[in-house]
Write a structure and sequence with these properties.
Largest sheet: 6 strands, mixed
CATH topology: Rossmann fold
Shape: globular
Number of helices: 7
CATH superfamily: P-loop containing nucleotide triphosphate hydrolases
Structural class: alpha/beta
Mean pLDDT: 93
Order of helices and strands: EEEHEEHEHHHEHEHEE
Strand content: 25-35%
């Protein structure tokens, strides 16, 4: 999808957060989940947000993915400052520029693998023949060309996650957000899924941003952002190789 005139240029990051803050009310008190976070995500990066439970990983992922709004700070997406966008405009940006992969897969049980992948394209108004063609191409890219007509309940956990990855890529996103994508997978399947996503990052020039405490994800990341008590503790480049 072409970007609006006057928006992101090649020199701009896909995402740029400056001083993001998010606080939740808990009873009569408040809990700061994200505190003064500044972060940039560039094209085709493979980034892990790591930290213990309660460090703010998922909250930050939700803020960057426009699933939640910050209490303070700014977020620029494709050169557009997000705070002034309406809910419909935010939904359009999520649909057209972002993909999401969740630890519980979030597939629609009554739809086949092909139909699950095609669903985001239907929301974007893609014609049926084009939806089917692209769904089949994406399922082949994740190794499921023989499972296109199968519903999620007849797929293994790893196969469901592959469908979820294909669905996340349906509308040719710039960034895929993955929240603990290996949490419900065995070690061998988790490694296969991570290798698959690394390959898609390189071949399709899509940025992947993970919220994780899984060392397997961290070991494959090319950049590791460590969070503690809602703040960035470190942001370092990594070789992103297996150990």
């Amino acid at each position: 999808m072409p970007l609006p005139s006057g928006s992101r240029t090649a020199a701009d990051p896909l995402l740029e957060a400056r001083g993001l803050t998010r606080t939740y009310t808990l009873g009569s008190g408040s809990v700061p989940a994200v505190r003064d976070v500044s972060l940039m995500i560039e094209e085709a990066e493979f980034v892990a947000l790591q930290g213990p439970s309660g460090s703010g990983k998922t909250t930050l992922l939700n803020l960057l993915g426009l699933l939640d709004r910050p209490d303070g700070g700014t977020l620029t997406v494709d050169g557009r400052e997000a705070s002034g966008l309406s809910e419909n405009e935010r939904a359009d940006l999520r649909r057209d520029r972002f993909g999401f992969v969740f630890q519980t897969f979030n597939l629609i049980p009554v739809l086949s693998a092909e139909e699950n992948v095609g669903y985001p394209m239907a929301l974007a108004g893609v014609p049926p023949d084009d939806r089917r063609s692209r769904s089949m191409e994406l399922l082949a890219a994740v190794g499921l060309e023989q499972k296109t007509s199968v519903r999620p309940d007849l797929l293994s956990g790893g196969q469901r996650q592959r469908v979820a990855i294909a669905r996340a890529l349906a509308n040719r996103p710039a960034v895929v957000f993955a929240d603990e994508p290996t949490a419900n997978l065995d070690s061998k399947t988790a490694e296969e899924i991570l290798d698959l996503m690394r390959g898609l990052c390189d071949s399709r020039r899509v940025a992947f941003l993970f919220a994780t405490h899984d060392p397997r994800v961290v070991n494959r990341a090319r950049r590791v952002v460590s969070l503690h008590d809602g703040r960035i503790e470190s942001d370092v480049l990594s070789t992103g190789t297996r150990t």
